[in-house]
Amino acid sequence: MVGILEKIKIVIEKDRLIRINNPFGDIYSDYISRNSFEFFKGKSYGIVCEYGSGGEALSLLLSGEISMQLEKSFIDEKEVQKIDSGWYVGKKIMSKGVIKREISKEKAFKIAIDEYNKFHDINEIVSMFNLLPNKLEYGFSNNCEWERWRASLALGYACNKKIFCFPWMNTMIFYDCMYNSQVFKYFDDIKRDGGIIILPTSRKENIEGLVDDIIEIHCSRFEHTISESY
After folding, report:
1. Alpha helices in the chain (DSSP H)
2. Would the pTM of this model clear 0.85, i.e. be above it?
3. Lowest mean per-residue pLDDT among 52-56, 67-71, 218-222
């Protein structure tokens, strides 16, 4: 497995549609345009774009949740077939085997501790990310959104992931997520550990002062002008 050291680059070679099924239960098609993006360790990035114009797809590509087809990824200039260090914040954690079932946060944390040894016990994780001990027996989707974001971020950190990718969020959901869950309080710790934060949203104002860099996606899907002549 190749780990991120300094920089990751995504090269999108051709426009395409990607089917999205995000943590909010939304199912839609996201459009990604020919482009390239670079992200450096220890930094946070706001991805500003319209709904359906590639912010969600970029998060999914960086987190390794969808396969590269018309895209290429490079870690420190070396091309890789899959991004193993990415984490899609808010996703369900399923059991392995033929029959897939959502597992509890407690079980997911125990597996992460045994495999990665970043924490000694669950209490350390609970304390660092201000989790509710009485909610550990539930799966990630069976919690209020605020607890879900903190717990998912905590699990990715416990699994030694380096790219923390949030779903695309409109202004209302973004403010609800960021300020009620308080997940932004953990961004500095993640960045000091060499991590990268990806926050796709609808407006630049949402992430100004919260991220180190802002990347605006101008999608060809929305560049057409409708006039009465149509």
Report:
1. 55-62, 105-116, 122-128, 145-158, 171-175, 181, 187-192, 204-207
2. yes
3. 218-222
